[in-house]
Design brief:
The structure holds 2 protein chains of 2 kinds. Chain A is α/β, with parallel strands linked by helices. Chain A is built from 22 helices and 19 strands. Among the domains of chain A are: 233 residues, Cobalamin-binding domain (Rossmann fold), CATH 3.40.50.280; 135 residues, Transcription Regulator spoIIAA, CATH 3.30.750. In chain A, 35% of the residues lie in helices and 13% in strands. The termini of chain A are far apart. The C terminus of chain A is likely disordered. Chain B is an alpha+beta fold. Chain B has 2 domains: 98 residues, Alpha-Beta Plaits, CATH 3.30.70.580; 104 residues, Alpha-Beta Plaits. Chain B has 4 helices and 10 strands. In chain B, strands 1, 2, 3, 4, 5, 8, 9 and 10 form an 8-stranded mixed sheet that branches. A two-stranded antiparallel ribbon of chain B has the order 6-7. The chains are: A alpha/beta, B alpha+beta.
Chain lengths: 631, 227
């Protein structure tokens, strides 16, 4: 919420207005705990994030607390704010971050780390946790990046590992009790603040980095060691066991201006146990849990009634995996088509069934269909445990062409383990076969055929079976890109795109980094790095220079070698999946052996069963899958 | 005379009058249209939807306002699929529109061929000028000079070309208000042949004072009407 003098001068003032429909504004005098929920990116991105909507709803449901939303402004607004001495604050009341009790920051993507620092500084909060005054807000982090919080350890007072909707209530309870004993911010002492951190560390899932001291390992990595009696050897991930009945934001804030996901969202399921070996979300959100058709229909109807959105989108890591997905889509059509509300279905798997679902939700409009085979050859798809065959892909695309789609987008990755030139050329073979089939199926409309191909680079993520992989040499990766480009060059149906490879390298560095990266991130921020997830703001040279300043070479750091038995900076973060399972999966990948989904086959002993009663929680497979089984 | 073609559904039209004020004047036109679309769906009004892939409620806005400009009597039309009385539309929509887009009246109109807005040909603006930067007497003098001229030619860029137009003819009223605020009040033509835009008047006044433009604090469109 910016003042009118600033609104009059900036591009797109609507995103700084605040006061949106369903925004919760409470009288600050009537609540005790003031929570600023920050998304380190612009309004259009942050407002689309479902996790933030859930927390906003959960916190504001508590009478003693209030939650305000904070996003990072565009450069023109930041400039005007600095000139006018204005601090970054909540959209609801405009109060600066420093006036809140808790500043919670969502960490979804490594390239937002510099924006985290920018938000704190523009909000008047000290960047480093050890320099924060006792009266300053508690700075909390959460989100998938907390699988390895170490690069940010110096900036956060605590991290919540895992799912937040239950834990945030415990954090507020603990904070409230502590606040009761220390009501006056101005007279709090450093030891009062330490007392709060120790109390927070007792909450399951809460990691307080200052209770650990880094120690250099044989491989030259900083490994956190226990440094206080309250520190626990491992911090276990929070998992909502009763997801079916967990809080659903049924009156989400309706944005003033178009955002990335400009629609209602209903989370139908959480987690995926398909077991793709590169996928961090697949580990971070285990096990697969789902909501009932009735709950989903009821929530969707309420969301539309409360917002007026013209579309409701189903959210899950893989929507077609819901055991009753057909009923959900049919039910939503029945409930909502009278109001011209369409149903959106993101993230499709590659099978006929998914195409049938896609047809259901897109009865008329045939926008592009996106499929992710990830690798070109069957051998390599087995290595990454993608569980998709060439036949699946042919069947699915054939069904799509017949159903009327003309544009297909395919995602592939390069830099996968055991990858050879043959695997790269297999992508071209596959694409050419698909194009041939597309032309045949489309008949007279064949000239409309478009196959867009995105060729990303594998980024080994912590807590995945690929966490020990060495990143490929950039020169080798670009040679492979060229190999594919040359093969497909003259065929007009194909359009190749490559995500920025330098950005990928920095993401790689940050995702498996240790505490030594803290000063690097700070350096890059000080040199102007902010909103770096936007390519136009990203500078590889800035990261290179920041590392050079401490006598390190970015390329060497990124291409570090790892071994299966070494200590890892994130060993103390326990997502529930055991190191033994990840090692086993790593070995099976090298041998090209697949591992089935535990929802369809039996338990694969990933380790989660020791943390919670998996068998009781995990969602059943779709009926047709019980007979077909995992391919 | 008023008979419909076979198959043509009867068109029921609601004339909506609303304000766009306060912070919401910073909404762009598309954002206002989306806010109405969502408010209408929340209000469960029996609106007619456009055909095609992406059906939207059939809404017509009269001369959309730019970002930053407020309006005190803005007009919009909604096509309904079935009849509903004016009071019910007003009550339901009033509850659902966000504060700042305030409903002033809703009137269900009898079926007619022409748009109820087709005859609008004049518009009033109230424009607050920063009194710290321009004196009231200085501004009044510029206004007098403006009005004394027989013709004022300015260059206007349209989508296709650059042309010269006379804006004096379509400026029906121009005055400095005598209230505490330093305010310009103007009545401008909306007719195609002698259309005048407020920014053009401001530009000419600025030049008469010897500046590139006038230091504007706030532009408000007061009303659109048939002169």
């Amino acid at each position: 919420m910016l003042p009118e003098t600033v609104l009059a001068e900036v591009q797109g003032p609507a995103r700084y207005l605040g006061g949106e429909y369903n925004a919760v504004v409470k009288d600050p005098a009537q609540v005790r705990i003031h929570f600023a929920l920050c998304y380190p990116d612009v309004y259009e991105i942050g407002m689309s994030h479902l996790g933030s909507q859930i927390l906003y709803h959960v916190i504001n449901s508590r009478p003693e607390a209030v939650c305000e939303r904070v996003f990072y402004p565009q450069a023109d607004a930041v400039e005007l704010m600095r000139q006018g001495g204005l601090k970054l604050g909540g959209l609801e009341t405009g109060r600066p971050l420093v006036d809140f009790d808790v500043v919670g920051i969502t960490l979804q993507y490594e390239l937002t780390y510099t924006t985290v620092l920018a938000m704190l500084e523009l909000g008047g909060v000290s960047i480093r946790s050890d320099q924060r005054e006792p009266g300053e807000p508690l700075v909390l982090g959460g989100g998938t990046c907390t699988g390895n919080p170490e690069p940010l350890a110096g900036f956060f007072d605590a991290f919540l590992i895992g799912e937040g909707e239950e834990a945030v209530g415990e954090i507020l309870d603990t904070y409230g009790r502590w606040q009761h004993g220390h009501p006056n911010r101005d007279t709090r002492s450093p030891s009062d603040r330490e007392e709060l951190l120790r109390q927070l560390a007792a909450i399951p899932g809460l990691y307080v980095p200052s209770l650990y001291e880094p120690e250099e390992s044989d491989e030259g990595l900083l490994i956190p060691r226990l440094a206080a009696p309250e520190a626990r050897p491992t911090v276990k991930r929070r998992i909502v066991e009763d997801f079916a009945h967990a809080a659903i934001p049924k009156a989400p804030v309706v944005p003033w201006t178009e955002i990335v996901h400009d629609r209602g969202q209903i989370e139908i399921a959480r987690g995926c146990t398909r077991g793709c070996r590169f996928c961090q979300a697949g580990i971070f959100y285990r096990p697969t849990r789902e909501r009932s058709v009735e709950t989903i229909r009821d929530a969707a109807t309420q969301i539309i009634a409360n917002t007026g959105f013209d579309e409701i989108s189903l959210a899950a890591l893989n929507c077609p995996d819901h055991s009753r997905i057909s009923e959900i889509i049919d039910g939503l059509h029945e409930d909502l088509s009278g109001q011209r509300v369409s149903v959106g279905l993101p993230s499709l798997r590659i099978d006929n069934f998914s195409i049938e679902l896609a047809q259901k939700v897109q009865r008329v409009r045939k926008t592009g269909l996106t499929l992710a085979p990830e690798a070109g050859s069957q051998r390599l798809r087995d290595v990454i445990n993608k569980g998709v065959t060439d036949q699946d892909l042919f069947d699915a695309t054939a069904a799509a062409f017949v159903a009327g789609w003309e544009t297909i987008k395919l995602y592939f990755m390069i830099g996968l383990p055991t990858e050879t030139d043959q695997d790269i050329l297999a992508i071209a073979d596959l694409l050419e076969q698909l194009a041939q089939m597309g032309r045949a199926k489309l008949g007279r409309r064949r000239r409309h055929l478009r196959i867009n191909v995105s060729l990303a680079t594998l980024i080994p993520k912590p807590h995945t079976p690929f966490q020990w992989l060495q990143v490929s040499d950039p020169a080798e990766l670009s040679r492979k890109q060229d190999l594919l480009r040359q093969r497909l060059n003259k065929q007009k149906e194909f359009k190749l795109s490559y995500p920025n490879s330098q950005l990928t390298l920095v993401e790689s560095l940050l995702s498996r980094g240790d505490r030594s990266l803290g000063p690097i991130i700070e350096h890059v921020y000080a040199e102007g790095g902010v909103l770096e997830a936007w390519h136009e703001n990203f500078s590889y040279a800035r990261w290179e220079q920041a590392l050079a300043a401490v006598d390190k070479d970015l390329a060497t750091e990124v291409q570090r070698q790892w071994n299966l038995n070494q200590q890892l900076p994130w060993d103390h973060i326990d997502l529930g999946v055991s190191r033994e399972f990840l090692q086993r999966e790593y070995a099976r990948a090298q041998q090209g052996l697949t591992t089935p989904d535990c929802r369809v086959a039996s338990c694969q002993n990933c380790g989660l069963g020791e943390m919670l009663p998996c068998q009781e929680i995990i969602a059943p497979p779709r009926r047709e899958e019980c007979t077909v089984g995992h391919k | 005379m008023n008979s419909l073609n076979p198959g043509e559904t009867q068109r029921i039209y609601v004339r909506i009058e609303y304000e766009k004020v306060g912070r919401l004047r910073f909404l762009g036109h598309l954002d206002v249209a989306t806010a109405f679309d969502r408010a209408i769906r929340r209000a469960e009004l029996p609106v007619a939807y456009s055909k095609g892939f992406h059906p939207r409620a059939k809404l017509t806005f009269v001369r959309p306002l730019p970002v930053g400009v407020g309006g005190l009597h803005e007009l919009c039309g909604i096509d309904l699929e079935e009849h509903i009385d004016s009071a019910a539309v007003g009550k339901r929509l009033h509850k659902q529109l966000p504060r700042g887009l305030n409903l002033l009246s809703a009137q269900v109109l009898p079926r007619q061929k022409r748009s109820p807005f087709a005859d609008l040909n004049q518009v009033d603006y109230a424009i607050d000028i920063d009194p710290d930067k321009v004196g009231a007497s200085e501004l009044a003098k510029a206004v007098r000079e403006f009005l004394e001229r027989d013709g004022i030619n300015i260059r206007r860029e349209t989508k296709r070309r650059l042309c010269t137009v006379d804006i004096r003819r379509g400026t029906h009223k121009l005055a400095v208000a005598s209230s505490q605020e330093l305010q310009l009040q103007m009545s401008l033509s909306l007719a195609q042949d002698d259309l005048v835009k407020p920014a053009e008047v401001l530009q000419v006044l600025g030049r008469l004072i010897g500046r590139a433009s006038l230091p504007v604090k706030l532009i408000t469109r007061v009303k659109l009407y048939v002169a």
